[in-house]
């Protein structure tokens, strides 16, 4: 059985460490790709820091384990005391720090322009303007997409979390909140990049014949590849994509009558775009050719080209745990998963660490 995790409290304002909880009975925690997740801590009533665990104090919880050495950071959302004949336990229900952005409402309407990273920083700044979170936006990879007055990024009476989800989906990237922890402070950074984690394919292997067990596997067709037809008459191509229902259609390259019967789009027309970023590029191509309102036929793919495949795995080998990081890609050999198994790369989407049970449970998306 793995060594139990340690639980610390940090001041919610200065982020300095207050101290360690010393009367902890059990700890569970989960990690999500965007820095969210959940944790539960059961503790006795005689802990010297009991009063500091009150959600109203606004203090932060840091869970650090030797077996899975990725600190978990979040805030106390709920507090329950349960008394029985032979027990008296306090249960802390905690949420990952990124979920604080679900409580930062971007009031009013705003039109944001500039680079993708610039708009990302503006959303974070607006969240901190409403109520400081301590999260700073970090400049990352450059994107070919930019927002201008003709096609801005608009926020309107939504949470910062939802706005960042929309922005990341639009450009086909990922966003997340990361942190570095010391006894003096916790530093929070928000990232927007093509992907999180590392490529460990061929380096780290998770196999049913060695270190993992398959708990469940799912195949979801709801976001499988589809095509839509964008017709002229809309203000711009992206509006057409938003307004028209998505339908399954056969690709027909036959030109339609008229001078604008077929739009070559610099070779893009016969390539299936994979995310919203291509839709913006396509819109700009149309605009540059003066065909925004007259394009007769443009075929655009949906974001996913294949059904989504996910598998839940339990890793019973603590020696493998330090290698597993949310967002990273690994070699996976799972003959009992899905209909015909899976042998190839998979990206780690989430982790649940339970040292008390000697298990590390995680969800992976087969790539």
Written overview of the protein:
There is one protein chain. With about 375 residues, the protein is mostly beta strands. It contains 4 helices and 22 strands. The chain has helices spanning about 115-130, 160-170, 235-245, 275-290, and strands at about 5-10, 15-20, 25-30, 40-45, 60-65, 70-85, 90-95, 105-110, 115, 135, 145, 155-160, 175-180, 185-195, 200-205, 210-220, 225-230, 300, 310-315, 330-335, 340-355, 360-365. Strands 1, 2, 3, 4, 5, 6, 7, 15, 16, 19, 20, 21 and 22 form a 13-stranded mixed beta sheet that branches. A 3-stranded mixed beta sheet has the order 10-14-13. It has a two-stranded antiparallel sheet with strand order 8-12. The longest helix is centred in the middle third of the chain and has 15 residues, at about 115-130. The chain is globular. The two termini are about 30 Å apart. Residues about 225-275 and about 290-305 have low confidence and may be disordered.
């Amino acid at each position: 059985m793995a060594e139990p995790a340690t639980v610390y409290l940090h001041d919610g304002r200065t982020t300095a460490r207050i101290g360690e909880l010393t009367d902890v009975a059990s700890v569970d925690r989960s990690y999500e790709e965007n820095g969210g997740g959940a944790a539960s801590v059961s503790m006795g009533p005689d802990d010297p820091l009991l009063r500091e665990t009150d959600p109203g104090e606004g203090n932060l919880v840091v869970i650090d384990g030797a077996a899975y050495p990725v600190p978990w950071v979040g805030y106390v959302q709920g507090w329950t005391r349960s008394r029985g004949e032979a027990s008296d336990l306090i249960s802390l229900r905690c949420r990952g720090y990124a979920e604080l952005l679900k409580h930062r409402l971007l009031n009013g309407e705003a039109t944001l322009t500039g680079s993708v990273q610039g708009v990302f920083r503006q959303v974070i700044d607006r969240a901190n303007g409403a109520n400081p979170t301590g999260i700073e936006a970090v400049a990352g990879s450059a994107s070919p997409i930019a927002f201008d007055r003709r096609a801005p990024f608009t926020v309107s009476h939504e949470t910062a979390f939802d706005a960042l989800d929309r922005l990341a989906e639009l450009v086909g990237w990922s966003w997340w909140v990361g942190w570095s922890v010391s006894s003096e402070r916790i530093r929070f950074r928000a990232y927007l990049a093509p992907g999180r984690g590392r490529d460990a394919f061929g380096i780290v292997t998770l196999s049913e014949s060695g270190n993992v067990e398959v708990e469940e596997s799912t195949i979801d067709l709801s976001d499988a590849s589809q095509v839509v037809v964008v017709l002229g008459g809309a203000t711009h191509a992206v509006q057409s994509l938003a307004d028209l229902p998505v339908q399954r259609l056969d690709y027909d390259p036959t030109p339609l009558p008229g001078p604008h019967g077929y739009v070559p789009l610099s070779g893009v027309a016969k390539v299936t775009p994979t995310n919203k970023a291509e839709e913006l590029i396509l819109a700009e191509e149309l605009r540059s050719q003066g065909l925004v309102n007259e394009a007769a036929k443009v075929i655009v793919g949906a974001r996913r080209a294949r059904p989504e495949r996910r598998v839940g795995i339990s890793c019973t080998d603590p020696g493998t745990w330090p290698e597993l990081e949310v967002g990273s890609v690994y070699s996976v050999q799972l003959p009992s998963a899905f209909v015909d198994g899976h042998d190839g790369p998979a990206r780690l989407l989430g982790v649940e660490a339970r040292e008390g049970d000697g298990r590390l449970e995680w969800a992976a998306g087969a790539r």
